Amino acid sequence: MGRSRSSIGIALATGAVIAGASACGGGVSAAADAKPPVSPTVSAHQQPVASASASASPSPSASLSASALASSSTPAPPKPDPKPKPPQPMLLNTITPQTDATVGVAMPISVVFSNPVAASARADVEQHLKVSASEPTTGAWHWFSGTRVDWRPQSYWKSGTQVRVDAELTGVSNGNGRLGTHDYEHSFTIGDDVEAAVSVPGHTLKITKNGAPVRTLPIDAGSKDWPSWNGTMAVIDKERTVHMTSCSVGISCDKKDKDFYDLKLPWDVHLTTSGTYIHYSTGDPYPGHSVGSHGCVHLSMADAKWFYNYVKQGDPVTITGSPRGKAAADNGYAAFNLSWSKWLAGSAGGAQTAATIF
């Protein structure tokens, strides 16, 4: 199914979420780096050209008259350049997770800037985004664009780990004429290791907690025409009810189309910014057979409510057996869809061990 709005991050001041794409189905696009602003060109003052007038004389030899020499123009002195403008502030739009949150083992730290950071400044910015943890943890930053950089551990976090992010950005340049004006601190905790494994051909969703099986639920995933994403996606957020529409994700805006839908559906666990959810569907109330969705994972009403109440932000949901490829790593929080070597390829500073705290 589809929805009319979506989100991925927690806002610094208000706890609101970042706007993204929407709904079951549809694609996702990563934000492109903005080019550095072009400085205004200061125009040079033209130097007037002196003109000489010849005086007529009956004599065979001609010479410049004194009046012509006296009237020759003198070059105007150059005007001073305008006073340079002070640098604009470099601000953070969001840091996720929200401070004091308890999240799952696959949750990355995601920092979104209000303006692009130049490639030349990213290593320095990384050095000022300091990650500390109560357990020895190796991880790295990865730049998805000039405005978004995520930090993930090499493998899942260890349950119970306390994490702190110190964004010491005061006076730090973004390489595009902006300087940091604030420092930020976020602390959060890694909760129980709750993982969900979806088998598309098996029509099952298996849940484990700290390695022990909890439940196996019947599901229906995406159809052949509208397949679900494969790969591991950390839960972005949850909503009691979501307005899902086929038009919002580009499936169909024609009410006569068999793929058209416009529904408010309950117990929605959000997996990608392109619109993948695990939820209950009125069109598929008894899942566990061959009927497919438009890319979402359907549960029965009772199972959807239980799953909604059981999982939390950052819990990994891994979908296998779909004909579709893996979700992009920045399609929500799908960081673990990249190998460690590919993750490091997007880092300006390379792997680091989080400083020990507590």
Structural summary, described in words:
- It contains 4 helices and 21 strands.
- It has a 5-stranded antiparallel β-sheet. It has a 5-stranded mixed β-sheet with strand order 3-10-8-5-21. Strands 13-12-11-19-14 form a 5-stranded mixed β-sheet, with no helix packed on it.
- It is mostly beta strands.
- It is globular, with a radius of gyration of 30 Å.
- Strand 6 and strand 7 form a beta hairpin.
- The two termini are 45 Å apart.
Properties at a glance:
358 residues; mainly beta; five-stranded antiparallel beta sheet; globular
Order of helices and strands: HEEEEHEEEEEEEEEEEEEEHEHEE
The helix fraction, in percent, is: under 10%
Total helix count? 4
Strand order, main sheet: write it out.
Answer: 2-4-7-6-20
Strand content: 25-35%
Per the principal axes of the C-alpha atoms, what is the gross shape?
globular
Uncertain runs are 2-22, 26-71
Characterize the largest beta sheet: strand count, sense, and whether it forms a barrel: 5 strands, antiparallel
Short description:
The protein is mainly β and 358 residues long.
Layout of strands and helices, then pairs:
Blueprint: H1 66-70, E1 88-90, E2 92-96, E3 102-103, E4 109-113, H2 122-127, E5 129-133, E6 138-143, E7 148-153, E8 162-168, E9 178-180, E10 183-190, E11 194-199, E12 204-209, E13 212-218, E14 231-234, E15 237-245, E16 262-270, E17 277-280, E18 297-299, H3 301-310, E19 316-320, H4 340-345, E20 352-353, E21 355-356
Parallel strand pairs: 1-9, 3-10, 5-21, 11-19, 17-18
Antiparallel strand pairs: 2-4, 4-7, 5-8, 6-7, 6-20, 8-10, 11-12, 12-13, 14-19, 15-16, 16-17
